[in-house]
UniProtKB/TrEMBL annotation:
It comes from the Bacteria. Its cofactor is pyridoxal 5'-phosphate. GO terms for molecular function: transaminase activity. Belongs to the group II decarboxylase family. Sphingosine-1-phosphate lyase subfamily. It comes from Isoptericola hypogeus. This is Aminotransferase class V-fold PLP-dependent enzyme. InterPro entries: GrpII_AminoAcid_Decarb, PyrdxlP-dep_de-COase, PyrdxlP-dep_Trfase, PyrdxlP-dep_Trfase_major, PyrdxlP-dep_Trfase_small. Keywords: Aminotransferase, Lyase, Pyridoxal phosphate, Transferase.
Amino acid sequence: MTRPALDALDLEQAPEAVLAALAALRTRDAPTHGGRVLSYVYDPGVPELDELAAGAVRAMQPVNGLDPTTFGSVAALERDVVAFARDLLGGDEDTVGTVTSGGTESCLLAVQSARDTWLAERGLRPGEARPRLVAPVTVHAAFHKAAHLYGLELDLVPVASSGPSAGAVDAGVLGARLTAGPAGAADVALVVVSAPSYPHAALDPVAEVAALAADAGVPVHVDACIGGFALPFWPDLPAWDLRVPGVTSLSADLHKYAFAPKGASVLLHRDRDRQRAQYFATTRWPGYPVVNPTLLGSRSGGPLGAAWAILRALGRDGLATLAGRARRATLALGDAVSGIEGLRVVGVPAGPLLAVATDEEAAADRRVDPHLWADAVAAHGWTLQAQPGLTQGDGTRLPHTTHLTVTPVTEGVLEDLVPVLAAAADKVRGRPRPDATALLGALPPLDGGARPGAGLDSAAAAALLDAIGLGAVGEEGPDAGPGVGPMAPLLALVEALPAPFVERLLVELLARLVEPRAA
Ligand SMILES: *Cc1c(COP(=O)(O)O)cnc(C)c1O
């Protein structure tokens, strides 16, 4: 077959061969479907929805979301998605919103808008003051990033480390922190709470916090990135969305429990002016006038189109059915874990996720370390996510845990997964967590300075990665599979090392992964 237009290009490789190479690379990935990976991916278990999303991406991918006046489809789709989210999440006719590229971008923009509103109210410019962002320690890392990028002081409040509200912040403790500044709460630009938190699936006391914040004149963002499209269908939860007085903005990821392909989230603002503060506009250059509601300039219409198509197809009832499947699976997994000697579920999960910790009430030789457990589960072909422990500002310790994000497809694989969870626990019960001291001994004296990785250049960081056996992560090989190997020793190391130092090492690991390789 001749293909004149292609042949005229004197191609390096035929499209079929290019796609075959892509398919070969994809076979090495962790599986995105089928429920074997319990984080990162949100599988509704309905292949037709993937087809629908792919069709919508195809229809919208050439469109540039930069200019909804030129590409009116973008404006129409965004209006629909924002309206759906607003109605689902307790907004009213004054609630406005934006579709962003993901949860991180929604969180960044919420903080940027709060900071700029705070500055404008005081006649200040960025850099002239450093307001506080007050949040529980369990707030998503995207807010650490936002504080870093936008020059806010991240003021983290401890959460309950045990009991039924484990992982949730106490409203009184947060309220006291709010007014503890030199000028009371006057230096707080934003309070953030989670519905629920990613690490522990804990629902923060949104209404109580919002009431205290409103009294202090401080806006509140609810990070419902993970819960936004699932919690509306969860029974027996206290109000947590825009229905709550005092909540000023809310983020909800379409690419999580609305099952859109990656690249879509919604940020809602209760009032127009706070949303307008999120825009960037300039006419002070010799090019087209720039008006950006989000961080990007040119952006594909694909993710928006796919999210719109899936919401339109599913509607509320479809989302409710899928959330119900995820909920039943979450309850079943919670029961299964609670029935395993030596393990326990942290707190009471609000939403389709849960964290698993060691049951300290079990005798030492009957306890199960959650990271050794996750590694043993991985040997059966299932991927759980190891999370480090954390010492909070008040000295209390949040245990290291293993995270499970539960999706609708999980319900159908419970009979395979539950026995694996039990067998893996049997395999590692009584075994202590790896001791990081031996690895630490191999390292030179550490610089625990405040600057990230102060004193480590890329060569030194690479040498250290080699020393701890992580120098070759991602190298090609016949057996190269997903992941960096056992998580238990790695996470023990992460906890034992000063954060700036281990952060620098992880940067090196990831940066080297995408460096071009010698042919
Ligand atoms: C996933 C998540 C985010 C960040 O979202 P990304 O889409 O990964 O950028 C923020 N907050 C919470 C609670 C999340 O679960």
